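User: I'm putting together a teaching handout on how multi-component assemblies are represented. Below are the sequence lines for each component of a complex, exactly as they appear in our records. Could you produce the 3D structure of the whole assembly as structure tokens, so the students can see both representations side by side? Please keep the chain order the same as the input.
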Amino acid sequence: MKTPLPNPPPQGGKGEAVSPFDVGREWFKGKVAIVTGARIGIGRGIAEMLVDAGVSVVVTGRETASMEQAAARLEERGGGRALGIGMDVTSPDDVRRTVDQTLERFGRLDFLINSAGTRQFGPLHETSLAEWDDVMDVQVTGTFLCCQAAIDSLLGTGGRIINMGSIYGYLGRENGASYAASKSAVVALTKVLASELAPRVTVNAIAPGTIETERRYPADMPEEERNADRAKRAAPVPLKRVGTPEDVAWSAMFLLGPGASWITGQVMHPNGGFVMP
Amino acid sequence: MTELPRRPDGICALVTGAGSGIGRSVALRLAELGLPVAAVDIDGKGVERTATVIRSMGARVEAYRADASSEADVARVFRDAEAALGPIGILVNVAGIQSSGATVRDTSLDEWRRVLRVNLNSVFLCCRAAIPGMLGLGWGRIVSTSSVLSARGRAGTAPYATSKAGIVGLTRSLALELADRNITVNAILPSMVDTPLVRSTSTEEQIVARGRELGIGRVAEPEEIAGVVAFLISDDASYVSGHSLTISGGSYILA
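Assistant: Of course. Below is the structure of the complete assembly, with chains in the same order as your input.
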């Protein structure tokens, strides 16, 4: 017997009245996700929204203790369960162990969101090979390793992968060649994976614009300074504000949701209209 | 009226991957244009053959056997080439390898790292080595060889496609960093080119079949890539920077 494709057309249409919100609620309930780089920022925002939708989430970051705290905070929200794991995305053993622990704890894997990232800024001719390699390792090789480790489980469930690109992968970034190169590279990897894992798994990328995160605005940053920076960054954005992790998380929810079953190898651009590729 | 920047006299061009294929054609073309050429390749015999042809044309050339992804080799070659041929005003990054054709699931971490290092780190290292000299000249041209595969999402090309897409992001960023210094930085994205590298992994039938998929009906000859490079390094291209130029025989490839 032929296995049915895991990405059927969305419900509704054909004269039936079905609330898309009901469809979404059923779709997410009981599914299991891994979100890397989920301690703060975009990864955390996605993890929170997934938990709120009833998805059980494994959140990873470099430090075990802070990820256990992050998981505890997620569990307090109700909804899906959470497990925090300290993991280095550049370590094949760490990555493999995280997938194994996910399967042990939750029994399946439906979504992989590769949100772990790092950055280094400076003119290219003053960038050391070690700095360059570090950005490539975390962003590009890290995404490769996490996808590779999750492929078999995702093929089994008919899952979804989301990788994190950036507006700078499209525009380039002065004094950020390593970052822009890594983000362009991640998009290419996304497209190749989308071809390889079709028709069972969809693979897409999100290329956010400027996002307000704890990294950009640490808690001890004076309010005045924060507002000035926000205003400066918002000025060239058509929608006149910087983005939030939730702006990106909603894009992720769409790509992971029932309405995106015919979307693969694509890039979503939550960026306030800053670039329209 | 603004005086347009002109290529300074006495500069030379450095070409990586000059031992065969696209790099060899680029080296020959630049020599024809009267530029002294530093021809670099990890294949010492190949790069000597290129140099022999260039010498027979009566042009100046130095051949260097070097690994463009080795920090030490790159430093040595730039130092020696500058001493022998003059300031390096033109850098053409061609050196690269293909990946095995394995899917992501079956790609070893060793292969992944090797392809990224050879194809992408080499461009980073050579650009980095070239910039101070170009800033000194107040003029420069960098052209790096990406690929349509960086944008196509073909199964079985992950390490190669990823490395070639990285070149595009690097190019766009570096173009912005150097835009007001008369240094342009561009990438070329050829589809399949008939080179020894391609012939080492594809049969004649496969090459013909791939060519038929393209609007033009055939794969490119290396000379057709060298001609585009000749434009991008010319003064005619002084306002073209950060660009990804697709060379694909008429087939539309989103880049």
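A couple of points students might notice: The first strand of chain B starts at residue 12 and ends at 16. The mean pLDDT of chain B is 96.
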